[in-house]
Design goal:
Number of helices: 1
Largest sheet: 8 strands, antiparallel, barrel
Number of strands: 11
Order of helices and strands: HEEEEEEEEEEE
Strand content: over 45%
Length: about 260
C-alpha cells in the first residue's frame, strides 16, 4: 500500500510539474499573441511590400447627362473605363494610400428624336440640339466621346494586409483630354417612320470645335475586395462656354479591380 501511495505521489508531482510548465508556456504564448495583436494595430510598424491594391481597374456602367431635359435623351447611356494604377501607402498608416495612374474612358449618350449639330450647320457659333420628331430622322442616334485620363484617389482599406477581401473606399478626381468626339446615326427613317436605306445604314459626324476637350470629374468608390460600386460627376461642361447646352455627364457602375 505504501508503495502505491509513493507511486501516486510521484505521479502527482510529475503531473504538477508538467502542468506548471504548460501553464507557463501558455501564458507566454498568450502574451506573445497579445503583443502581436498590439503590433498589428500599430499600422505604422506594418511592412506591406508590394501588396495587391487595385493596380488595375475596369469600370462598366450607366451614363446620364445632367442639365439636359429627360425628353432629349433616350434610355440610359453606357460607358467603359480602363485604368492602370500605382498605389502608394502612407508610412504612418498603410490603411490609407494614394492611387494614381493613366487610362482611357468612353461615354455613349443616346438621344430621343434629337440630333446634335457638332459642325455648326444650324448655328455657326455653337453646337445645337435639333428636334427631329415627325421629320426625317435616325432610328438610333448617339453621341460618343473618348478620353485619355489620369485618375488620382485617396484610398482607405480596412485591412491592408489582405486588401482583396477587405472593405474599401476611395475618393478622388480624374482629369482627361478628349481623343475623339462624334455622333452616330443608324437606320435613316422618313418622316412617316419608314426605313430609307435599310437598318445597316450608318452616318457619322466627327467634330470637336464646340466641345470642351478637357474634363475634370470627381469620383467615389465603395465596396469589398475586388468589386466596388463607383460614381463620377463631370465638373466641367461637355461643351465650351457659350458654344453649346449645359451638359455634364454622371456615371454610375461597377468597378472590377485587382493586382
Amino acid at each position: 500500500m505504501r508503495k502505491l501511495h509513493l507511486l501516486f505521489a510521484v505521479a502527482l508531482m510529475c503531473s504538477t510539474v508538467v502542468l506548471s510548465q504548460e501553464v507557463e508556456k501558455t501564458s507566454k504564448e498568450d502574451k506573445e499573441d497579445k503583443k502581436d495583436k498590439k503590433i498589428k494595430k500599430d499600422w505604422s510598424k506594418v511592412k506591406l511590400g508590394d501588396r495587391a491594391n487595385d493596380h488595375f481597374m475596369f469600370q462598366l456602367g450607366t451614363e446620364t447627362m445632367i442639365g439636359l431635359p429627360d425628353s432629349v435623351t433616350k434610355g440610359i447611356g453606357r460607358h467603359l473605363n480602363i485604368y492602370v494604377m500605382l498605389d502608394k501607402p502612407f508610412q504612418t498608416d498603410p490603411r490609407f494610400s494614394v492611387g494614381f495612374g493613366v487610362g482611357i474612358g468612353s461615354s455613349n449618350i443616346y438621344y430621343n428624336n434629337t440630333e446634335v449639330d457638332l459642325k455648326g450647320a444650324v448655328d455657326r457659333t455653337r453646337a445645337t440640339l435639333i428636334d427631329v420628331e415627325g421629320k426625317e430622322r435616325f432610328n438610333k442616334y448617339k453621341m460618343t466621346t473618348v478620353w485619355a485620363e489620369a485618375p488620382i484617389e485617396l484610398r482607405f482599406v480596412a485591412n491592408p494586409l489582405n486588401s482583396d477581401k477587405s472593405w474599401k473606399v476611395a475618393l478622388g478626381v480624374k482629369i482627361g483630354t478628349m481623343v475623339s468626339g462624334y455622333t452616330k446615326g443608324k437606320d435613316l427613317l422618313s418622316a412617316a417612320g419608314q426605313s430609307i436605306y435599310g437598318n445597316k445604314f450608318i452616318e457619322k459626324e466627327k467634330d470637336r470645335k464646340f466641345l470642351n476637350t478637357t474634363r475634370l470629374a470627381g469620383t467615389l468608390r465603395f465596396g469589398k475586395g475586388n468589386f466596388t460600386i463607383y460614381s463620377a460627376f463631370q465638373i466641367t461642361n461637355l461643351y465650351k462656354d457659350g458654344q453649346g447646352p449645359d451638359a455634364r455627364p454622371f456615371s454610375l457602375g461597377i468597378c472590377l479591380s485587382g493586382l
